[in-house]
Amino acid sequence: MRSGILLKQALESYRSDADVGPLPPPVDTDSLLNTFHPDHLRGSVVKLGVGVNAGDSCQRDLADLLQTEAYIDEADLAGTPVTDVDVLVIGGGGAGCAAALAAAEKGARVLLATKLRLGDSNTVMAEGGIQASIEPDDSVQKHIQDTLRGGHHAGNPSLVASMAEDGPDVLRWLIHLGMQFELTASGDLQTRRAGGMSASRLVYCRDYTGLEMMRVLREAVTQHRSIEVWEQSPAVELLSNEFGLKCVGAVLTSLIDGQMRIVRTRSVILATGGLGRLHLNGFATSNHLGATGDGLVLAYRIGAKLCELDSFQYHPTGLVYPSHLSGKLVTEGVRAAGALLLNANGNRFIDELQPRDIVCAAILRECQEGRGVRIDDERVGVWLDTPRLEQTQPGLLERQFPNLMSRTKGSGLDPRTQPLLVHPTLHYQNGGVIIDASGASTVPGLYAVGEVAGGIHGRNRIMGNALLEIICFGRRAGYAATAKRDRGPKKVTLEHINQLRRALTLAKMPMTRRAPQILPAYAKGGLWTR
Amino acid sequence: MSTATHEGDNRTHISLTINGLAVDVTAGMTLVEAAWHAGVPGITGVGCLEGVCGSCRVMLRRDKVVSVGLACQTFVESGIEVIFLPAASAPRHHYDINDFKDSWDIHARFHSIFPEASRCRHCHGCVGACPKDISVEDGVALAAQGRYREAGEAFFECVMCELCDVACPELIAPAHVGLFSRRITAHFHLRPPNLITRLEELRQKRVEMGEGERDED
Asked: Vertex A158, ends A154 and A163: CA angle to 5°?
């Protein structure tokens, strides 16, 4: 039996007006992170054995996925229907839509293929906002500095500069497409300051910024005459030329009828998002159902170099209860508004507004050292003290966090009277496919944008840079992918898969498991338990 | 050791049908979880699992009452019949926001794009269908009167599930009327001075650096 105080007991002894005790003296953050952050769990990181990143550190579960057998071989390509387009975009979230719209602006015929429905993505769940330096006391330079510092100086300065410089123009482009933002009384864009920012830089649309962005982009894409959309069509493999050196298309399948299709093109833009649904290190996730890291697998196999494969963001406050929202976020804004984190003894244990990785490590410390609130063997957490917030600022939760209130409403839980049980949740992939300022990967013909790309956020992303990144690099890749006007591919092959199989065999790696995963095992129609 | 949970009595067994299959699950599960648990095949219309992507549309029957909703936000009940709905069909109303050069003719354009919007027969089908409790009918009426800002505000919480489109006997496509209203409000009226000032500063800097104008747009 693991330690901790049982939920019932903890609830009975909880008082929203109890004395929470003094904040303990700050501990050394390096040793806190090294001991408790999931990136540093013993045995969670391995060295890759095959591929362009051989020898690099990689999270164990991800390494297993990157070094696996493919679903198809060349025999499967025979007789498969072929579609020719100028640009293929794989992924229907914010980055994919931005790339498709940009390529279509330049006159390209675009095919956007997405695994689920157009708009099913992490973009739609983003609550906080989007960063752009527009206030008089702010500058592009400050935005660059904040982003690099937040990422522990592991980010690529030239990519960060491209993103920060594009910020204001990204907002103009979104407004042109019809996205609304909060305004001040004088009509300026309302900004606010979040963790890690040296100026007020976050523009937003209540706590629904990502939803507002995604529905506008989705409508713009479906209405566009030269963008064709294939839903329920995941990519199972990229296609290479006869030397396995250039990306010339992809093989898509259909979740409805299993029919495979070959798409032949000059440029493929990967916008497949992250991998929360792999539940790395056994963590719950805030991500949508399709976030299974498919893009990383496809890109790695065709020879694209990846980076920071051992660095992930665990958001400190994922819900433990209600169970159907397990792992879903309580936005950082609730802590910014003054909500405290309390352990099972009712004591504070960390300054709640420290960077995400530090707060996350502190919560895990409380849980491991027996000061967590336990539901059963699996589920443990600490209190996010929302009733106290309601007591000191009545009505605030309802006014500022309609999304949180409407989500908990259905399950008989009222954050105004009962504290929320929270635990860190797998939130974001900090690294990914290495790109240049136009979104191009190290493989000719292959671009990567959005969460699947790496190098911008270093080893920790600050709030509001994800929504900026997807539009900025989505547009850049869309424009760049149409600039090359060669005659298109002559031959489409799976030569890179043949090379992968040779490498796996030489390295004596098992070839039993196949990837990309496409859906988590529990959603594939097997028996499932919570 | 028995475990105390927030869920209360979550061991209760519940029987229902999903896509015609009899399913035995425990109370407290959502319809998505129940479908996964029972291995119902072909459930691919699932996305965010928190009620904001609008993918997991279901039709439910309790006794003789039929309703619609989102499967990730609806809990299992004894005896109900559930059908996961297919994705929405292609849009019937077409426009390109780049074609709108003059905001004075937007009212005429709206009625040529959405000719059905002024034919609402107040059946409340859309209002009953909306999983977000949006006053859909009022929103459509406001748009038909040319009050796009207010109409768009009414649709603020729209999650694009398009259940109102399915419910409308006049084929108004209320979700798209709402989105049109929101989009043209931003497109024509959002001109924030702080953003415009910064864009101009950056443009002048590029000219000074000799980079010239961007050709991107």
From this structure: 95
Scan residues 352-391 of A and list those with Cβ closer than 8 Å to B: 375-377
Count CB pairs under 8 A between chains A and B.
203
For residue B129, give the nearest of B79, B172, B168, B86 by alpha carbon: B168
Asked if residue A127 lies in contact with residue A223, where contact means CB atoms within 8 angstroms, the answer is no
Domain containing A319 equals: 5-36+312-426
Distance (Å, whole) CA A331 – CA A127: 7
Q: Report which DSSP code applies to B93.
A: -
**If you count DSSP H runs as helices and E runs as strands, how many of each does chain B have, helices first?**
8, 5
Residue B199 predicted with pLDDT over 70: yes
Residue A60 appears among annotated catalytic residues: no
The CATH number assigned to the domain holding A324 equals 3.90.700.10
Beta strands in A359-415 (DSSP E): 373-374, 380-384
If asked whether residues B116 and B159 sit together in one domain, one would say yes
How far is residue A39 CA from its own chain's centroid? Answer: 16
A427 is catalytic: no
Query: Which one-letter amino acid corresponds to residue B187?
Result: H
> Which residue in A201, A264, A277, A335 is the catalytic one?
A335
B200 within a domain of the structure (yes/no): no
Q: B202 vs A189, A484, B196, CA distance in Å?
A: 18, 28, 10
A484 has pLDDT over 80: no
Distances (CA, A) of A410 to A161, A289, A413, B30, B164: 44, 21, 8, 11, 21
B197 CB-contact burial (10 Å; exposed 0-12 / middle 13-18 / buried 19+) = middle
Q: Which pLDDT tens digit goes with each residue over A349-408?
A: 999 888 888 899 999 999 999 999 999 888 999 999 999 999 999 998 888 788 888 888
- Average confidence (pLDDT) over B32-37: 93
Q: State the Cα–Cα distance between residues A515 and A510, nearest whole angstrom.
A: 13
Q: Which of A168, A175, A321 sits opposite B190 (nearest CB)?
A: A175
pLDDT score, position B213: 55
Question: Residues B98-131: pLDDT tens digits?
Answer: 999 999 999 999 999 999 999 999 999 999 999 9
| A290 Cβ under 8 Å from any chain B Cβ | yes
Q: Are residues A301 and A419 in the same domain?
A: no
Is residue A343 located within the same domain as residue A443? no
Please determine, for the modelled complex, whether the ipTM score is greater than 0.90: yes
Q: In terms of domains, do A263 and A138 share one?
A: yes
Which secondary structure element, helix H or strand E, spans residue B205, and what is its range?
A: helix B193-208
- Please name the amino acid found at residue B138: D
Total structural domains within chain B: 2
